[in-house]
Amino acid sequence: MRCAVLWVLVLLGCQPRAGLDEVGAEVGALGRGLPRGFLWGTATSSHQIEGGLDNSWTEFEAGAFPDGRPHIRNEDRSTVATDSWNRFDEDLAAMQQLGATTYRFSVEWSRLEPRKGEWNDAAMERYRDWCLKLRAAGIEPMVTLHHFSLPRWVSDAGGFENPAIVDDLERFTRRVAKNLERQVDLWVTLNEPNVYAVQGYLAGVFPPGKKDDTVTQTKVIAMMLRAHAKMAAALRAVDDVDADGDGFATRVLVAHHVRTFQPATPSALDTAIAGLTDDYANEAIPRALKTGRVLLSVPGAITIDEQVEGLAGSVDLLGLNYYTRDMVRADLGSASLSQLTSRKGRAVNDLGWELYPDGLHGFLTRFAAYGWPMVVTENGLADRSGRLRTPFLVQHVTAIERAIRDGADVRGYAHWSLMDNFEWAEGYDAQFGLFTIEETTLRRLPTESVAPFRAIGANIPR
Amino acid sequence: MTAVLLSVLLAAQPRLLEPEVAAGVGVLATSYQTFGARLGEAALAPTVTARGVFSGFVVEGGALLSAPLVRGGTLLTTTFAARVGFSGERWAMVAGVVAQLAPEATPALVLLPSLRGQLSFGGAGLTLGVFDHLGLVPAHLSVDVGPFSNGAFSLGWVAPLGLIGSADLSLPRGLGLRVTAFAYRLNNVEAAMVLVAGTFGGAR
């Protein structure tokens, strides 16, 4: 049927629909097309903002690649980051300035369990205090349990290469859920399993810094899904307190990174590799969450086809982290079988990522078929100039409104990020924040996009 | 024995493949996520192909330029194909290489093997192709019907999921008109093309 539609469009002369990138930067009535109760806020992660950590990333930050280049651009280190561990009240004030109704943040495993079985109750108390303050401010906490960083005792034991992590994460989840159950209903078990595996085992720019190892990369994704299944079960078993009286005590998400992969040329090989890449990176995880079947394949390297107990039905909402589109060019000599490039002549962010809001609409309408309500758990851009952020925001929220009109059930949006922070391998160069951080004082300074962000939020039906 | 075989193969006789020149223009489109996607991936694709047959030995060459019709389309790509093979009266086989040059991509040049085999059973036949049609079709198996006095047509399956078809219309003085169309899908990526070409010489 879809082929037939495509044929018809070809025969009609391929009149393109106006792209969302042609939408201007005016807020106007934007937000009124979002449903009542739509969550509107920002996202961060512990390692990128808290400061003062000692984990797999702090170890990686000190290292260098075999050719001598530092692991992190400009030899940046996370160190104090935005010092959010000590400045949560300032972060909260920034959220209030944005008119936010949700805040997605992660609890840092290495801080809460610095050594196996040794728990930092004071740190847990501080996270609970954050959640209380958020609730008091009318901001729904959305807590991520794993966002890229691992305690050293876990990474030293092999991280997600070692099956022991499944039980360790389950224990950690139970502990956190027990302590935060009265404040938290929205739980993100894992952030971007595909990115964690690809960056850590194919690109080698995340810990453990392995390169071109698609076999381990694929095994790691499978292990993360096994861990997720147990974490989700633990959350549902432990957190039976409905914190906000909306009828749900626990709602589980995975924050799934999606990326538009299109063939760079009409070549059948580019088309085939784009299709395989899309399945591996975009489709395999939601499919596994729906069916319980982990089906991942890198042709010529590895195929995993495994039914994981407890995985089917393990999420209540699907989280989508969306940023950009890539063009896929076949390169059978590379481990990933392809090279990715951005479109020429299109607007890009400071990292060279194409700004492509139509892709967000595409994913929301595509994954609507799975039947889950969805939350955009990350969406943003590195924009030091600040000139691109407001049109980016307007275009992507327009994409969400259009997707809702087209039948997608979208319940929330968390902009990445609340403030500029430590952007992993890019260090502090990539500025994703709605607030910038004054270098000497670490004060949160609003960008020009704060007002439009607040205006959109104010338009959302209450 | 070899000499006998060669003499039989090379003897003047009707060949399944005959010399031909074809030139045309197509509209090529790739789509992603289908209904939600813009059709910004359409490209105009002028093509030219030529075939020579010398005592059964076949030499084929072709070129295609894929130029995006709208901003943000697939990259400008030039494709060249060269194949050699042999044609008997009821069978033919050609194999070679397709070179796809997209200067803005990395790698800029991608080489693909290309293969086409044909069998004829009189008024009908089968064609198997891998990266056929200038590397635009991953693999296809088609049923050919004809030639009739005024043309021929074929219809086939494109792997993993798709269709390909063509129709040849004979015109006076060795001229002809050929319409070729295909569409296929792999996961969430789709490609389709309609190509209209004028031909001169043995059509099939």
Explain this structure.
- The complex is a heterodimer of chains A (462) and B (204).
- Chain A contains 14 helices and 13 strands.
- Helix content of chain A is 36%, strand content 18%.
- About 2% of the residues of chain A have low confidence.
- The longest helix of chain A is centred in the middle third of the chain and has 25 residues.
- An eight-stranded parallel β-barrel of chain A has the order 1-2-3-4-5-8-10-11, surrounded by six helices.
- With 204 residues, chain B is mainly beta.
- In chain B, 6% of the residues lie in helices and 66% in strands.
- In chain B, strands 1-2-3-4-5-6-7-8-9-10-11-12 form a twelve-stranded antiparallel β-barrel.
- At the A-B interface, helix 1, strand 5, helix 11, strand 8 and helix 12 of A face strand 1, strand 10, strand 11 and strand 12 of B.
**Uncertain spans of chain B, ≥5 residues at pLDDT below 50?**
none
Into which percentage range does the β-strand content of chain A fall?
15-25%
Oligomeric grouping of the chains: heterodimer
Briefly note the structural class of the backbone of chain A.
alpha/beta
Count of all domains of chain A: 1
Order of helices and strands of chain B: HEEEEEEEHEEEEE
Order of helices and strands of chain A: HEHHHEHHEHHEHHEHEEEEHEHEEEH
Mean pLDDT of chain A: 95
Overall morphology of chain A: globular
What helical percentage do the residues of chain B reach? under 10%
Considering DSSP H and I runs of 4 or more, what fraction of the residues of chain A is helical? 25-40%
Instruction: Give, in spatial order, the strands making up the sheet with the most strands of chain B.
Output: 1-2-3-4-5-6-7-8-9-10-11-12
Biggest sheet statistics of chain A? 8 strands, parallel, barrel
Number of helices of chain B: 2
How large, in whole angstroms, is the Cα Rg of chain B? 18 Å
Structural class of chain B: mainly beta
- Describe the largest sheet of chain B: 12 strands, antiparallel, barrel
Whole-Å distance between the termini of chain B?
31 Å
Low-confidence stretches of chain A at least 5 residues in length (pLDDT < 50)? Answer: 10-16
What is the residue-mean pLDDT of chain B, rounded to a whole number? 89
CATH topology of chain A: TIM Barrel
